[in-house]
Design goal:
The chain has helices at about 10-15, 60-80, 125-140; strands spanning about 25, 30-35, 45-50, 85-90, 105-110. By secondary structure, it is of the alpha+beta class. The longest helix has 21 residues, at about 60-80. The protein is globular and about 40 Å long. The structure holds adenosine monophosphate.
Length: about 140
């Protein structure tokens, strides 16, 4: 089993602009974009620019820097998607549920009594992802 960072992972390619994404936010610390297989409408990913496989090998300073952005995206997502709550998920290694080996945080709008769709199963149509990205971007620009 490998446990080193592979710079050819799909999120590293998104960070380098080699493949597209539905981006909602970017700064020096991280990028945020829509998950292509959302578990709920508005499911976004926050991906730090600093390379690590996951939380286990991350620089603590990079973790500290990214959490305020996770909070910012979560606050905007709750507003944009009129959610009752937000789940933050973060998986570590295959046994921990991780499928893309560059650290990321899932920000998932939740509704009372509504279960999550399966993790990484159904691909959302591009036009819906684009509309959700626009909604989330607008909430981010409007502040809290
Ligand atoms: P995990 O590594 O298990 O935390 O999950 C990786 C997540 O990335 C899954 O929810 C996938 O739906 C999502 N995903 C995979 N490829 C892409 C992509 N190119 N753009 C956006 N999301 C992706």
């Amino acid at each position: 089993m490998t446990s080193t960072y592979d710079a050819d992972n799909i999120f590293a390619k998104i960070l380098r602009g080699e493949i597209p994404c539905h981006k909602v936010y970017e700064d020096d610390i991280a990028i945020a974009f829509m998950d292509v297989m959302p578990q709920s409408d508005g499911h976004a990913l926050v991906v730090p620019k600093s390379p690590s496989r996951n939380l286990l090998d991350a620089d603590p300073a990079a973790l500290a820097a990214v959490i305020p952005l996770v909070q910012k995206i979560a606050t905007a997502a709750k507003k944009a998607f009129e959610a009752d709550g937000i789940s933050i998920q973060q998986f570590n290694e295959g046994a921990g549920g991780q499928t893309v080996f560059h650290l990321h945080f899932h920000v998932i709008p939740r509704y009372e009594g509504v279960p999550l769709k399966s993790h990484g199963r159904d691909m959302e149509p591009d036009d819906i992802l684009a509309a959700h990205a626009e909604k989330l971007s607008a909430a981010l620009k409007g502040g809290k």
